[in-house]
Amino acid sequence: MRWSEIPKEAKAYMIYHTLIAPGLIVWILFPLYLMKTGYSILEVGAFFTVVNIASIPLTYFFGRLFNRWDIKKGLIAIDILDGIAYVMYGLAKGAIAPLMLFGGKLIDKLSTLLYPLYQAYEQIIYPEDKYEEIFAWHLRLPEIATLVSFPIMGYLLGYVYNKPEHYRLTFLFFGLFSVVTVTYLWLFLPSVGKEERISSEGFTFKAGEFKRLLAFETLLTLAWGLAPEFILINYVVFVLHKTVFELTLITVASSLMRIAGTYASERVPKGRGFHAIAIGMFLNAVYALIMALAPPFWLVLVVYAIGDFGNALWFPFYRSWLFKLIPKEKTTEFHAALSSYRKVLGLITPIMAGFLASVHPTLPYGASLAGFIAAGLFLLWIAKKS
Q1: Euclidean distance between CA atoms 220 and 115, whole angstroms
Q2: What crossing angle do the helices spanning 331-345 and 116-125 adopt, rounded to 10°?
Q3: pLDDT of 142-157, one tens digit each?
Q4: Which of 214, 205, 194 lies closest to 65 in space, CA to CA?
Q5: Would you say the C-alpha torsion 303, 308, 311, 316 has a positive or negative sign?
Q6: What does the pLDDT look like over 302-330, one tens digit per residue?
Q7: How is residue 269 annotated by DSSP?
Q8: Could you tell me the pTM of the whole model?
Q9: CB-CB contact of 317 with 271 (8 Å)
Q10: Which residues form the signal peptide (predicted)?
Q11: Taking the CB of residue 324, how many other CB atoms lie within 10 A of it?
Q12: 194-230: buried (b, 16+ CB within 10 Å) or exposed (e) per residue?
């Protein structure tokens, strides 16, 4: 699918994700900031688990709330909440630092409760007959922004401005940058109100297929949840003695391979989507296996790139399969419920990952390996049934 063939409103939405891509470095900096200011790997896992517990009851409520109102307002709310959270991180200094960090992370988590609105907006705004092709572009553009911005920021924060106070200034910068992204959302993204949604008349829900979806979600959530970002950060910075710069190099290598994966996904024959997902799961399993063996940095970079190539290969087909199961007039409520299900599954995985890493830094990847193998085998079974 050529860029010129993509509808104008879909292009505007993709450009928004390209604008916010550099700010995702905060996801690396925040766990590292905790570790650099005295938190152990087990305490970091416990921190994220407590935040998860505090946030669960709100997920389904927000899905129902924004099922009745314009989804665009929900997207604006996400950026406002993220901005507030990042500013609180930046102000986390002195005796009030633990309170500011925890309060900021709760607000940040509150914004993630609205993340199902991204999927709901995509399901409505993207052409239904072009889901697989358009999601290749959806992945590609933000990765290009990451390729440009992450090495520069990583070098500066790894070798020039590498103190905790510099991280706090970075948090403040991206918190204030949310003013720009909120303005962009308000001016350039079309509203998608309830009256604009497509009727579900004639829709037949396939209960069996939905059960298979939930089973796959269970395996996938556990596989990723047992080896979260802070496990990589702990291993690279505190075991291999590298810096933020090396972490961003891993992100850049992964971005390059995700871009390659989007082109590979476009060449998968029609009707072979489940096979593409299963291959992606196999590549994820390779990544987890090698990481469990405590590799040197260069090999960490390679295997993370391989794993993310697998992610980009299977993502368009998985998202297309998911969207075809959901009636559009219930899209926000459904995605919120599915998100809540993922959060319940991932409730204790941060502290489990932290505990495993406290025993051995790469032990969480061994647990993750089992999940990816099971997910790949399960998808092959689904392919035979379809």
Answers
A1: 18
A2: 140
A3: 989 999 999 999 999 9
A4: 194
A5: negative
A6: 999 998 898 888 777 777 776 766 666 66
A7: P
A8: 0.82
A9: no
A10: none
A11: 12
A12: eeebeeeeeeeeeeeeeebbeebbbbbbbbbbbbbeb
Round to whole Å and give the CA distance between 126 and 97: 42
- Sign of the Cα torsion 177, 183, 184, 185 reads positive
Taking residue 98's Cβ as centre, other Cβ atoms within 10 Å add up to 12
User: Which residue shows structure tokens 């507030």?
Assistant: 84
**At how many degrees (to 10) do helices 131-155 and 244-266 cross?**
160
What structural domains does the chain harbor? 1-190 (1.20.1250.20), 206-385 (1.20.1250.20)
242-251 burial, b at 16+ Cβ within 10 Å, e below that, comes to bbbbbbbbbb
Region of 241 please: left (phi>0), alpha (psi -120 to 50) or beta.
left
Q: 54 and 109 in contact (C-beta within 8 Å)?
A: yes
The two three-digit tokens of residue 208, written as one number: 């069996």
The residue type of 256 is L
Distance from C-alpha of 110 to C-alpha of 228, rounded to nearest angstrom: 19
